[in-house]
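## Example record

The block below lists the input lines for one assembly entry, exactly as stored, with component labels intact.
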Amino acid sequence: MRKFNIKGNFEVKSIIQLYAQWIREGKLPVSSDWNKDLKIKFTVQDPCQLVRKSLGDPVAEDLRYVVKACVGEENFVDMYPNKSNNFCCGGGGGFLQATGFQDQRREFGKIKLRQILETGAKYCITPCHNCHSQIHDLSEYYDGGFHAVHLWTIICLSMGCLGENEREYLGDDLKEVGL
Amino acid sequence: MSQNALKIGREEKKTTFMQKVMEILPEGGNLNLCLTCGACSSGCPASGIEGMDPRKFLRMAALGLDEEVTKSGWVWCCTQCRRCVHVCPMNIDIPRLVYYARQSWPRDERPKGIRGSCDFALKTPGNSAMGAGSEDFKFVVEDVLEEVRETQPKFKDLQAPIDKEGAYYFLNQNSREPVTEPDEMVPLWKILHIVGADWTYSTQGWAAENYCMFLSDDEAWEKIVRNKVEAVEKLGCKVWLNTE
Ligand code: SF4
Ligand code: SF4
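Predicted structure tokens for the full assembly:
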């Protein structure tokens, strides 16, 4: 919008900011109790579009606040580097849709693959669709053994209200949790 | 002697690709301030792909190797992630240089997938890069909603409003859900339901994605942004809420 000098009489926000706000205000009753004994590890991808390119570290902090509230502080493993310094997953900029550039895209993604594998996490939360598709593909292609999940899936899981059909991206370890 | 003078004269006249880009960018994108430190390249996941990296790309552009720079397939491998700008001591805007290199490609030679996504978005009022029509979108949303209401008693009052005037939040939705995995929309609706948010989807400009931007098609990009802004204003929403 800035590029074209378009001014709307409304605010533009990311839902990540609101998730954090709603949890702080007690409106979203998330809890990490379900993961106390399971101890399933999660990491999170910082979408470039959201973090480095628009809202910066504050939204990256919000994102971590939400994730920790849902999976437990001790079960969150950050990748390195992170937040505004994180690496792009390789799904952005049209790369996923660029016909004829699949090998290059997977080459690009190796750095992300290594970052995720180094955390040892079974799940990488991807709050952006391009990241989700790319990280899902990286895990499959390189046999990474981790899952790419949307943030809303984990929020609902941690409130015990995730339906049976809403678990497409969960591994067997979480298919039944809270049902 | 006279031949030499002529040659110099000619070189001075030729505006290189980089010079043209510098004229467009604020502060010329700092493109001529490079210290050749290599910080950009060492943190760029696209370094080495197609034998290129951001520093090399910039150096070649500075040397006026326009053909090599603009024709390189690498321009489609840079994701515009801006990590290089973030770490660059001189704040040099290499991704914008790449953006304009993409733009120098004839539109029909740019990668088919991105072009197709952009064209679909232009053709549908919802700007869906997957070409999903607004009626289809509406149908899928209502269908999924009904099923949840019937099968999950806790959510028998779940809402997924479309074109609700005066709603506080205007929600966009990536086309991937309604088109390929509609059940993935449900957790989002549940969250909004639990907090009691006043929200709506719209049949106009509902799609979250914008590939025209990545195609470096300025005109199309602008058209899509304008359509979406208009949609938010038509419904009188206070917040345009990005769901990704
Ligand atoms: S980081 Fe900046 S100054 Fe250093 S080589 Fe790259 S563009 Fe040049
Ligand atoms: S914007 Fe492009 S050149 Fe810069 S770090 Fe990202 S992929 Fe590399």
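The first strand of chain A starts at residue 11 and ends at 14. Residues A 88; B 44, 46, 54, 78-84, 94-95 surround iron/sulfur cluster (ligand 2) (CB under 6 Å).
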